[in-house]
Amino acid sequence: MSQQLNTSAPLHPEHQWLNSALGRYLQQEEQVLYDQAVVDLFGFNALQIGCLQMDLLRSSRIANRYKSTEYMNAAEFPHLYCCDDFLPVADASLDLLILPHRLEFSERPHQTLREAERVMMPEGHLLISGFNPLSLWGMALFLRNLLHNNDAAAKTFPWNASFIGLGRLKDWLALLGFEVISVQMCCHTPPCEQESWHRRFSFMDKLGAKWLSAIGGVYFIVAKKRVVGMTPLKPSWKTAPVKPNLVVRPTQRKPSQRGHVE
Prior knowledge:
The structure is a single chain. This protein has helices at 13-18, 21-38, 109-119, 136-147, 166-175, 195-200, 203-211, 257-260, and strands at residues 45-49, 64-69, 80-81, 94-100, 120-131, 178-186, 218-225. It is of the alpha/beta class. Strands 3-2-1-4-5-7-6 form a seven-stranded mixed β-sheet, with helices on both faces. Strand 4 (94-100), helix 3 (109-119) and strand 5 form a beta-alpha-beta unit. Mean pLDDT is 83; it is low at 1-7. Residues 81-128 form the Methyltransferase type domain.
C-alpha cells in the first residue's frame, strides 16, 4: 500500500529560507563544490541527509543514491524520515555520505559524526558543508545573538544554528579516524537578504577566493574514513643477504679405504 504525503503540511523554515535571495545564493555556491567533488567518487550506496531542495548527488556516478530528512515536507520526497544522530542504516554500508549544514543544527553533533563513522565503508568519503564562524556570516550571527539574546522569535533559520569552527571540526574528524582530504571556502559576500545588495558585493566572491579564502561564509570538507591495518615491513638493505641453501655441503669426511683394511 502506497503512503500518501500530506500536501497541506507547511514548509519547513529551511525550505522557506533556501527560496530567499540569500538562500538561492548559498545553493548556487555550494552546488558547484558538491558537483565537482562527487563526480569522481565511486561505490554502491550514497546518502544525502537534509537540504533536499539541493540535489547534491546529481553528478554522482554511484548507482544507489538516497535522501533523508527528519521532518515531513510537502515539497520534498525523501527515501527516509529519520534523525541524523540515529540512522536506520547498517554498519559499513555507505560509500558516500553528505552532511550539508547538519552539524550546526544537530542537537548532538558528536553523535551525528559517530553515526557517520559507523555507517560508512572503509575508505568511504564524507562530505560536509557548514557555516564558518570566522566570517561575515559568523559576525552576523554574533550581532543577532547580541541584539536578540532572549528573543527566540528573532532567531530564524539559519541564525538559530550553532556555528562550528573549522579547526574544531577537523579535530572531531581526526578522533573518529577520518582524514581530511581537502577544504574549500565559498560565500564571501555579506549575508544580505536583498538581491540588489548581492549584486553590489558580487566582486567579493572573486576577491575573497583569491586573497581571503579562509574567511568564506561556508566551508566545504571532503574527508575519507581510514581504517588502521597491518604495517608493512620494509627490508633492511644494510644486512648481509641470506646465503642460498641449494648447494649441499658435507658435514664429515668420507671413510677412506685404509680405514676399512683390517
